[in-house]
Amino acid sequence: MRVSRIAKAIVSGIAAGSAATVTAVQDGVVTTGEGVTIALAVLGAWGITWAVPNKPQPPAGV
Fold first, then answer.
1. According to the model, what pLDDT value does residue 6 have?
2. Which of 61, 12, 8 is nearest to 41 (CA)?
């Protein structure tokens, strides 16, 4: 099964953003610094996931 780079990036961004958001809302308030951390987590996950290529598929019949 081949997953597109865009799909991988979206899922990783959602995972990183949700993890950062859960941590930020523990005290009931999201500060500006926590908002920036959430945004950077999402953007970082998108960039890293987009940059890493998919594992090459073996030739058929091998």
1. 82
2. 12
What are 20's two structure tokens? 């950062």
Burial of 34 (0-12, 13-18, 19+ CB in 10 A): middle
User: Would you state the structure tokens that stand for residue 1, as one six-digit string?
Assistant: 């099964």
Q: Tell me the pLDDT of the chain averaged across its residues.
A: 87
H or E stretch at 16: helix 5-24
Mean pLDDT of 23-37: 94
Structure tokens at 10: 């979206």
Decide if pLDDT at 1 tops 60. no
Q: Please report the sign of the dihedral spanned by the C-alpha atoms of residue 8, residue 12, residue 13, residue 18.
A: positive
22 burial (CB, 10 Å; 0-12 / 13-18 / 19+) is exposed
